[in-house]
């Protein structure tokens, strides 16, 4: 049997112990031979700290998996069966700018969508395409499992510009499932959500408990204040009239759209009064996390990691890889080409939907048509994503301006123009394509 080698690009991330924990739990079903954690020169210190913790976790679990720490991306990718990307171009400082600059311009500052997400996308696109080149030359049959945000845009760019086998993955769908199970007080494996939309922009069209449609009950629970959120999003309650009229379950990130004014007010106040954005908070949490990771007696995933937004990240990732590796043909929510899943959306664009996953990869499950209440929104955000892909590949400012002008979180052309100039200027060292 071939060696099962996994390359993790951005291996020095504070989330890595989460991933290692997932591989440990799954070892009976999938014996990973080697996990290569890769990072860039600047990330070497973090890579060492988190990598040594990963080694201790593996040895504590008495497994044979070899952990390799390296800054040589090509060596890590060579002959890997799976390449996982969880990188952050420019680190948390760049994220802080992505959140601050829009807020200073009076618009939502979020790292994965709107103007901030756009900046993250154009910084990341050249790097992801470069990684794809390495995959093609060093391990052409490898699966690229991408978590790097904006995950939908990354899956789109890889599909459009390469023939690497890619699956975009996010923890929002699995978190929704867990939150709903909690609200109904049932085991999570009894819940099935028919999801449709885009990454960080997905709705649960119907929710089933043991095969019975319980969408109305879930909506009622949400109206009564059942939590359906993640740590990184302001915890504003849904207006029951919104949920009842929608008749579907929005994802936590929809707060930025349906409650744009309220969130913006909160963001502006917390920035003005305390200089706070989520990136500033995350920097603090990271400091604490890396201090904990340094402790040589620590050999399991520390609970402080739960303060981050990445809940269930390892479950989603490892079970997806397991399904491909062991040809399980079970269902996952993934970012892949639509190919008929949402019947009234273009077949050739990436959407976030359920798919049956086995060794041939994901096969999308048809979820029917998107109702009018969300169809136009999906299309406008998808158009923004497609324009962002083009801008990010070609370095075309005009296309970039169109992308930002149509985004629902950016209210006017003049704001789009101003924020674009500031973002490109601030990020110029990461934007070779815009030179
Ligand atoms: C959620 C999102 C992820 C995102 C994370 C940020 O989990 O689904 O895509 O990366 O939040 O969390 P953080 O703790 O970095 O703010």
Q: Give the class from helix and strand content and strand pairing.
A: alpha/beta
Runs in which pLDDT lies below 50 for 5 or more consecutive residues are none
**CA-CA gap between termini:** 47 Å
Radius of gyration: 21 Å
Q: Give the overall average pLDDT.
A: 97
Q: Find the count of extended strands (DSSP E, 2+ residues).
A: 13
The SSE string, one letter per element, is: EHEHEHEHHEHEHEEEHHEHHHHEEEHHH
Query: Which percent range fits the helix content?
Result: 40-55%
Strand content: 15-25%
Bound molecules: 6-O-phosphono-alpha-D-glucopyranose
* Biggest beta sheet attributes: 7 strands, antiparallel
What is the oligomeric state here? single chain
Contiguous helical run count:
16
Characterise this structure.
It is a single chain. The chain has helices at 16-25, 44-60, 73-77, 91-104, 114-138, 151-161, 172-184, 215-223, 240-246, 255-258, 260-274, 278-294, 313-325, 372-394, 397-406, 413-426, and strands at 5-9, 34-38, 66-70, 82-85, 143-146, 165-168, 191-198, 201-209, 212-213, 249-250, 330-337, 350-358, 361-364. By secondary structure, the protein is an alpha/beta fold. The chain has a domain at 379-434. α6 (151-161) links the parallel β5 and β6. It is globular, with a radius of gyration of 21 Å.
């Amino acid at each position: 049997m071939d060696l099962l080698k996994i390359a993790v690009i951005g291996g020095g991330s504070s989330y890595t112990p989460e991933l290692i924990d997932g591989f440990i739990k799954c070892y009976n079903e999938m014996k990973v031979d080697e996990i290569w954690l890769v990072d860039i020169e600047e990330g070497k210190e973090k890579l060492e700290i988190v990598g040594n913790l990963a080694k201790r976790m593996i040895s504590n679990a008495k497994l044979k998996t070899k952990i390799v720490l390296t800054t040589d991306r090509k060596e890590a990718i060579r002959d890997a069966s799976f390449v996982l990307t969880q990188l952050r171009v420019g680190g948390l400082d760049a994220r802080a700018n992505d959140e601050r600059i829009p807020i200073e311009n009076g618009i939502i500052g979020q790292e994965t969508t709107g103007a901030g997400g756009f900046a993250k996308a154009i910084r990341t696109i050249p790097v992801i395409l470069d990684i794809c080149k390495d995959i093609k030359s060093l391990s052409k049959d490898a699966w690229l499992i991408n978590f790097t945000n904006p995950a939908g845009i990354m899956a789109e760019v890889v599909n459009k510009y390469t023939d690497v086998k890619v699956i975009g993955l996010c923890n929002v769908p699995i978190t929704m499932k867990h939150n709903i199970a909690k609200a109904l007080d049932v085991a999570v494996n009894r819940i099935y959500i028919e999801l449709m939309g885009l990454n960080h922009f997905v709705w649960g069209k119907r929710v089933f408990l043991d095969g019975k449609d319980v969408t109305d009950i879930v909506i009622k629970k949400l109206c009564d204040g059942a939590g359906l959120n993640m740590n990184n999003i302001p915890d504003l309650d849904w207006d029951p009239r919104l949920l009842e009229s929608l008749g579907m379950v929005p994802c936590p990130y929809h707060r930025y759209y349906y409650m744009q004014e309220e969130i913006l007010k909160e963001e502006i106040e917390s920035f003005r009064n305390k200089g706070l954005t989520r990136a500033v908070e995350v920097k603090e949490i990271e400091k604490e996390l890396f201090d904990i990771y340094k402790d040589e007696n620590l050999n399991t995933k520390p609970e402080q990691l739960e303060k981050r937004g990445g809940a269930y990240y390892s479950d989603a990732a490892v079970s997806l890889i397991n399904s491909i590796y062991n040809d399980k043909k079970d269902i996952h929510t993934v970012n892949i080409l639509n190919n008929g899943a949402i019947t009234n959306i273009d077949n050739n664009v990436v959407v976030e939907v359920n798919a049956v996953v086995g060794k041939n990869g994901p096969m999308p499950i048809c979820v029917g048509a998107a109702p009018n209440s969300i169809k136009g929104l999906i299309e406008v955000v998808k158009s923004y994503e497609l324009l962002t892909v083009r801008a990010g590949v070609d370095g075309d400012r005009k296309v970039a301006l169109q992308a930002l002008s149509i985004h629902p979180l950016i209210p006017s052309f003049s704001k789009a123009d101003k924020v674009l100039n500031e973002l490109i200027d601030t990020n110029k060292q990461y934007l070779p394509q815009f030179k």
